[in-house]
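Exercise 7.
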Amino acid sequence: MLALAPLLAMAAGSATAQGVWVSVPSMPTARTAFPSTAAHCPEGLLDTCVYAIGRAGNQGIAPFEAYSPSTNAWATLPQMKTPRISVASSTAPCPEGVRGDCVYAVGGTTISGPALATAEAYSTETNTWLTLPDMPTARTATAAATAPCAEGRGLRGTCVYVFGGNDPVNPPLATVEAYSPETNTWATVTPLQTARIAHGGAAGPCPTGHGGAAGP
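Solution. The predicted structure, written as tokens, is:
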């Protein structure tokens, strides 16, 4: 038995290093094909929240809910001004004049309508949605990520990048556009090498030998 003790300890340590999945309370609204992001919680919830944005069945409903790990509870929040599905979302600083971080919801479509260029931002400080300038390119089933703004495009600070997606005329898209909260403007940046739809996106360190942050 004593001889087995080190092996058992190693196995236990290995399991801990791999991490585990835990169950949390179900969302108030069952749904599929929706984006999520993390940001500071609104008043009434604590610390950092996970936000679930849009899409519920075929009724065109656009629920917006937040989960607080600190309280292990969900809250239902104000819906987007333009209800839609297949939006992309990311967290970034709010537009100039609004404090704190915002949850951005861009693009998407209604159940039977065309692709949209609509862009909105939810302020965690005020618990309200802000209307932003439309994206240059309407699209649905796109992805978004937050990273430093590209140079030489008239943008400043941190940007929300929207890449790829679908529109009825030119599916799929390789188009990449960036929104700067500091300037409240969009700019078109270098396109994807491979056009695509219904993909995911996140920002992280670039591969070795390339500066800055990687997006798609």
